[in-house]
Structures are given as structure tokens and as C-alpha cells.
Design a protein that fits this description.
The protein contains seven helices and 18 strands. It is of the alpha+beta class. The chain is globular. The two termini are 39 Å apart.
Length: 313
């Protein structure tokens, strides 16, 4: 069942109760008039599997002051959820590329492996992979296990948190697959949400300290076509002669149920994991940004005893 709303940033959001793969989403979203989902002339692109061991939380100056004051993270409004995103960088892209090749061509020769050129990074053009931010100038990046351990100790009395399929959110061009993390004590509260299982066909699962994201739409602009040369056991990105094509893009959001409480971290640990982000080309409504010099001064004011310089993401 689908419901629709305007979220707190004023964006129209269509909500589906499960994680819908792209073909399912296209069927379920008929009648919404989403012009991106209706496009059928997108060049072939890969759908890799990313194994992600870090989470990121972007915020603006107001959020940064609040995080420093609270020594941690909470929902800044009246909601009960604290949102993080998967941090997918060059290492994860390289690993996903190797997995694609090994699964498709398990018997390729050493020479074929050595002559294979990198191609997946050319498709990783959506905001999910971007070093810039749509939300603010400040990014906290933590190891996933550190976040889950802190949540376990502070919200679950040391027990492992429960993970559930929360929803699929469809915006104008963005698809977000949300995973809910909550205390076992709240099982009854969220019993209507399916558990996040280790299903090889699912969009997202959790295994061995990593979220596994099987991206359905990894490209921001479709400038390349995915070519598989079976005779040579090679894959490549072939530039498309037509103008850039836009389609939907997807990512995974992790929602920690914290009520009005704070997920706390040591102040120095917060600073260690803080970087500066440049402003993305397209930002979310209501987002504000600082230039790097201003950010350096603010961070120095908030952490006066921390002497390492602020780095860029």
C-alpha cells in the first residue's frame, strides 16, 4: 500500500511499505506521473553489490553546534528517528567491480584480469557516491560497527539491535530504501515491519558487520553504456553519443530509533570523524552551507583542544 505526504523539507514523498526493486516500483507507482520512472531509453548500466562498513551523517552549522553541545546525535525536530546514510567510496566501488567480474567471468585468465580497465566508477555518478553534500557543510563518518555498538549499549542494554525493512521512499528523481534499527524492547511497536533478512535477492541486507546494498539505479547522469564482451571476458563503459540522460537514482538510509534521546560519542571521537563538504550542485530545500575558512573557524571554536586541521571529505 502506498501513502503520500510532504516531508518536513517540503518535498513530495511517496511511501511504500517494503523495499521495492525498480521494476516493482515502476508497477506500483503507475498513475503518479513520475516522468523519470517512465523513461525507457536508458542505456544499460550495472547493478553491483556494495559491501559498506561506514555510515555518514551530514548536517549544517546549526546541527554541528547541537551535536557538539549534546556530545552526540538526535532527531533535531519532533520525530523519533536519527538518520544516517551509507558511505560508499572508491574502495567499495573497486570491490563491487571485482565481484561483478568474478561472478560473470569466473574462469577468466590472469592476462584477461590484468588487461581489464576500471569501469564501474564511470557509472557511480549519483549523489550516493558524491563527496559533496546536499544537506550542509559538515559530515560525520563513523565505522558502522561503532555506531551499532554504541546504539546497543545505550538503547538495547547491550543486546544486538533489531533491523527491519522500513520503507521505500520515492521522490521526484530519488529512491531511498530505508532500514529501521531499534531496540528489542520495541519489537511490538514495529512488528508490522518485516525483519531485514539475509536474502540474496533483496536490495539491502546486513551481514558480518556490513550493509550489503544491491543498487538498482547507481547513475546520476547516464553518459555511458555498460558493455559486456563475453568473448574477451571483459566489461567496459562505452560513452553514449547522445546528450546526458537523467533517470531515478537510489540509495540506502539507516534510521535509528532514538525517541527524544541522544546517541552519544566522546567529543574527541566526534571531531576525529568530522570533515568539511563542498556544496552539491543540487541541494535539499532549507539546507545551508559555510565556506571552508568559516568552517575551520567554527570547528576550532567548538573543539579548541583538538589540534589537527579540518580536512575536506
Amino acid at each position: 500500500m502506498m501513502t503520500s505526504r510532504r516531508n518536513r523539507r517540503g518535498h513530495m514523498e511517496h511511501l511504500f511499505g517494503n523495499h521495492l526493486k525498480l521494476n516493482q516500483l515502476i508497477d506500483e507507482a503507475q498513475g503518479l506521473g513520475n516522468r523519470y520512472l517512465s523513461i525507457t531509453t536508458i542505456p544499460d548500466y550495472p547493478r553491483p553489490e556494495f559491501h559498506v562498513s561506514h555510515l555518514k551523517h551530514d548536517t549544517n552549522q546549526d546541527g554541528l553546534f547541537g551535536i557538539r553541545e549534546d556530545s552526540g546525535f538526535k532527531n533535531p525536530k519532533e520525530g523519533s528517528l536519527l538518520w544516517w546514510s551509507l558511505s560508499v567510496g572508491p574502495d567499495e566501488i573497486t570491490s563491487a567491480e571485482m565481484k561483478l567480474l568474478e561472478e560473470k567471468y569466473p574462469d577468466r585468465t590472469e592476462e584477461q584480469a590484468q588487461t581489464q580497465q576500471s569501469f564501474l566508477e564511470k557509472f557511480a555518478t549519483s549523489p550516493a557516491f558524491d563527496k559533496t553534500s546536499r544537506m550542509g557543510s559538515y559530515r560525520f563518518t563513523f565505522p558502522l560497527e561503532e555506531v551499532l555498538n554504541a546504539y546497543s549499549e545505550q538503547f538495547c542494554s547491550g543486546a544486538p539491535p533489531v533491523m527491519r525493512v522500513f520503507r521505500t521512499s520515492l521522490f521526484k528523481q530519488e529512491v531511498m530504501y530505508a532500514v529501521l534499527v531499534h531496540s528489542p524492547a520495541d519489537d511490538e511497536l514495529f512488528s508490522d515491519r518485516p525483519l531485514l533478512t539475509d536474502d540474496p535477492n533483496s536490495v539491502c541486507t546486513y551481514r558480518d558487520g556490513r550493509f550489503i546494498w544491491r543498487s538498482e539505479a547507481m547513475c546520476g547522469t547516464h553518459r555511458y553504456k555498460w558493455v559486456q564482451r563475453d568473448d574477451e571476458k571483459q566489461m567496459e563503459a562505452e560513452e553514449v553519443a547522445l546528450r546526458y540522460r537523467f533517470y531515478v537514482w537510489d540509495h540506502v538510509g539507516i534510521a535509528l530509533h532514538v525517541d527524544e534521546h541522544v546517541l552519544e560519542f566522546d567529543a574527541d571521537r566526534l571531531r576525529e570523524n568530522l570533515t568539511y563538504c563542498d556544496q552539491a550542485t543540487v541541494t535539499l530545500k532549507g539546507s545551508t552551507f559555510d565556506d571552508f575558512k568559516q568552517a575551520e573557524e567554527i570547528v576550532k571554536e567548538l573543539w579548541p583542544d583538538y589540534h589537527s586541521p579540518l580536512e575536506r571529505a
